[in-house]
Amino acid sequence: MNSGEKYKKRLQDGRNVWLNGKKVQNLVEHPSFKGTISTISSLLDLQKHPDVQEELTFETPNGNRTNMAFLFPQQKEDIFRRSRAFRLWSGATFGVMSRVASFYRSQLLGWYLTRDHHKEIPGYSEKMKNYFEWVMDNDLLITAAGHDPQIDRSKNATEHGDDIYTAARIVGETEEGMIIRGAKMISTGAPYMDEIMISSHKKRTEQEKGYGAMFAISANTPNVHLICRESFASNLKEDYPLSYRFDEMDAVIVFDDALIPWERVFIKDDAEAMWKIRNDPFTTAISLHETIVRLISKLEFVAAIGNDLAESIGVHQYQHVQAKLAELFMQVETIQALLLSAEHQSKEYGGVWAPDVNPMVTAKNLGMKYYPRAIGILQQISAAGMLQTPSRLEELKGEIGPFLQKYYRGADRDAQERIQLLKLSWDLVGSPLGSRHELYERFYAGDSVRAFAAQYLEYDKRHLYDKVQSRLTSTLLV
Ligand SMILES: Cc1cc2nc3c(=O)[nH]c(=O)nc-3n(C[C@H](O)[C@H](O)[C@H](O)COP(=O)(O)OP(=O)(O)OC[C@H]3O[C@@H](n4cnc5c(N)ncnc54)[C@H](O)[C@@H]3O)c2cc1C
After folding, report:
1. Could you identify the atom of ligand 1 that is nearest to the CA of residue 437?
2. CB under 8 Å to 22, separation ≥6 — which residues?
3. Is 186 a pocket residue for ligand 1 (Cβ < 6 Å)?
4. What is the CATH class of 3-277?
5. HSE-up of 106 (CA within 13 Å, CB side)?
6. What would the pLDDT profile of 43-94 be if each residue is shown by its tens digit?
7. Of 145, 170, 428, 465, which one has the fewest beta carbons inside 10 Å?
8. Quick check: helix, strand or coil at residue 283?
9. Ligand 1 atom closest to 143 (CA)
């Protein structure tokens, strides 16, 4: 059985996936999921392709081949090795599949490699080791959820009325494990994943102790429900080429007194420890590495579409359009330069390497601004052109075909080619999937206000103070 088939089999494990008010009975065949499942299966099969196997995978100490995102960077070259794999992997889906692209696999690697920094947390190091090695050896897919449901953000988790179990919280303990009740949002890709890591993205107060747990669940854990948003998948391959195969889905995770076995509970009742692990600089750098490579794939895809759109209607000759296209190229080059800077300035952290965190954080934060701007540029270049398409591409062959051939052609291409380009553009810019992507890039790593403020707070400002000091005291600098 190939990897894709094995993956499909793994999904048939009784997980509670809810869509349109019903529990999904056959995820693999369900029209809202099957396109994306087929994409993930093909990616997993790609790992075994002789042309790219060496680049995408490596052999674990137990002799299993697994995804390069799990590779321990023991030397600087390993950072470049990981980068090449991320590029190939994310490039295969134009950067629009984030969870399959290993963001959380890399984060888990970071936690594993830094596990001994947290010896004060009972059992953490050993449990993290066992869990990571199991995920790595089985090449499992993993996502995460770390936010409380968005009910009233001005209050902490204990203040949502009488029910303190709104945000996921420990409700009890047994010999086998702890019981969790409440919800977590938003988990991208949850229905497609093997594993979901639950933690807290927020610094908990002392009263919120019970909410500061960190644990891992398999997607089919009893009494865990994955409540999906509306599906953006389309079965119209030609009209929605991205929605057809790349709807990653987002879900809220509800714990209805779910038992989490002790071996999967990494932190319990320890807000400080949770926060320390969340902000570990090595883990931040190692996980951002993957997501920045993915961002480059995505920005390149947008730039390619922008360039083609302009040429297809002959507006690439106008200076303001050229300036806008140049802005798309600058975005790609800037993030690429930051990536190279981070990789070349990789640092050793006690025997393991990670890219320099400063350029990584800068690239992540710029990405939050770049992507919405890039989408805006596509709209400005194409204007109403994106609506000058028939409802279905197949109409070109129908009764109305001759009108379409005449009125829907482009400056340098026939109607079919122009309509295909516009439908692809619309799927990236205007379809529900496209809008979700804009929201994703704005928010997937936190909101920009707090992300920028965090960069200010964490930035090493000593050299800036020194500069002012030397200017005040030096007589040579006028
Ligand atoms: C498409 C998509 C996919 C995602 N996937 C995942 C995932 O897989 N796993 C995961 O864990 N998370 C995921 N996220 C969640 C993401 O991390 C959050 O959206 C982000 O951190 C912002 O939190 P929020 O959405 O709860 O917004 P809120 O925190 O509710 O913010 C709403 C608004 O209020 C403002 N605000 C709220 N509180 C404050 C404050 N204290 N100070 C200043 N301003 C404030 C914000 O700036 C924002 O404008 C995803 C998000 C999106 C959009």
Report:
1. 1
2. none
3. yes
4. mainly beta
5. 30
6. 999 999 999 999 999 999 999 999 999 999 999 999 999 999 999 999 999 9
7. 465
8. helix
9. 8
